[in-house]
Amino acid sequence: MTYHNALSIVNTAFIMECSAMAIFFLALPLPPNKGLNNYRLSLRFLAGAYLLLAILNIFVLAFDLSPDNFISMEILTMSSLQATLFAITLIILLKPQFNTKSYLIKQIAPVLSLLILYFLVSNRWGDPEIASFDELRQSAFHPAIFVRELFLLFYIFQLVYLTRLFYRQEQLFEKKIDNYFADNLRLHLPGVRYCYYAALSIGIGSGMSCFLFSNQWELTFTIIYTIFYLGFGIYYIQYPRTFIFIEPAICVQENNRDEFEKTNKRINWLQLKKQILEDKYYLGDGVNIQDMAQYLKIGRTTLSTFINNNEGMNFNLWINNLRVEEAKSLLLAYPHYSLAQIAELVGYSEASNFSRQFKQITAETPSVWRQKHSV
Q1: With contact defined as beta carbons under 8 Å apart, do 225 and 205 qualify?
Q2: 76 and 162 part of one domain
Q3: pTM (2 decimals)?
Q4: Using an 8 Å Cβ cutoff, are 130 and 139 in contact?
Q5: Are 270 and 335 in the same domain?
Q6: Domain endpoint, select from 312, 332, 352
Q7: How many helices (H) and strands (E) does the chain have?
Q8: How far apart are CA 200 and CA 91, in angstroms?
Q9: Whole-angstrom Cα distance, residue 272 to residue 306?
Q10: Whole-angstrom Cα distance, residue 190 to residue 168?
Q11: Residue 342's CATH number
């Protein structure tokens, strides 16, 4: 099989894949949950992007287009738009409030501005073909080439900016999860992080395509991003099940700042803490800060502020510290109990999670700790 035949088959598969995924995004049935409205909008945006990719690849096959021009505007434009697409759609999973038209326009505006500038300049002074670094160096200050170089610098800046934005939103997301759930083992969404790293790698590869024109590179990279787009789409459509569970943690409306000040005048944290410890509410399976706040008849923000200010830790860490202290007593009082039984008694649904939390807090596994402290 020749290189051109292999590339044609891969591109055809990519076109069919993108078309099918776009249709599925638009037809995906979702629960009637208001919190999923932003996700629905992101699916439409994603469907449009996949359809656009399919159409562009149809043109590539129909007109036998191949990138053989250094710092190609076509490559840069698609790379920049796709970098924005994947970064924002993944950030939306961590912070749905980013899914607004104004924010998307703000991200795309620089790309459109550079394209308009490029068309104006190339129509006035032309746009020479550049096939080597020597030619690029000689024509570096040609108006059209200068705009292309400027676009490349913007693209590099864009990758750095989007990566920093994603990292910051991931940290804020994890903080919200830790301040809401006692059991958060699978709620930090590591898949979103892996998807972003994969998308970033694709973005870097797209940038490299501005300088690499070998048959092997084009075929290999086409196969890689074909697999990536399929995996990304499959992961993205699985998110609603998780979102419905974590929605209260990441989409809660911020309470009025006066709530804590007013409540603090009436309720003492020591009283609340005494009630929690006496009733051992922290041992409940799946306990979260919203349920505990309702149990104590105070606001969620108030309870979170009390814990952070007085205990010096977030809700998740505080609950797990209380559970581990309870587990220590049970490990010594019931030496014949298995770790799975102890884990269940202190509120963990999985013994592995119990052991992990215990070791994080005590620096020892439950079994080692029990051996050391048994009489």
Answers
A1: yes
A2: yes
A3: 0.85
A4: yes
A5: no
A6: 312
A7: 17, 0
A8: 13
A9: 9
A10: 15
A11: 1.10.10.60
The residue assigned the tokens 């559970």 is 323
φ, ψ for residue 69, nearest 5 deg: -125, 125
By the 8 A CB rule, do 176 and 94 touch? Answer: no
Contacts of 63 (CB under 8 A, 6+ apart): none
- Residues 281, 347: Cα–Cα separation, whole Å: 10
pLDDT tens digits along 199-243 = 999 999 988 888 887 778 888 888 998 999 999 999 888 888 788
Residue 307: partners with Cβ closer than 8 Å, 6 or more residues away: 313, 314, 315, 318
pLDDT per position as a tens digit, 151-160: 999 999 999 9
HEC string of 291-328?
Answer: HHHHHHCCCHHHHHHHHHHHHCCCHHHHHHHHHHHHHH
Same domain as 45, residue 160: yes
Q: Which amino acid is at 169?
A: Q
- CA distance linking residue 224 with residue 205, whole number of Å: 10
Rounded Cα–Cα distance for residues 225 and 231 (Å) = 10
Domain co-membership, 226 together with 202: yes
User: Amino acid identity, residue 171?
Assistant: Q
- Residue 337: what residue type? Y
Q: Are 169 and 96 in contact (CB under 8 A)?
A: no
Span 71-94, pLDDT tens digits: 888 888 888 988 888 888 888 888
Q: Are residues 245 and 268 in the same domain?
A: no
Do 105 and 222 share a structural domain? yes
CATH number at residue 75: 1.20.1070
Count CB-CB contacts under 10 A for residue 332.
13
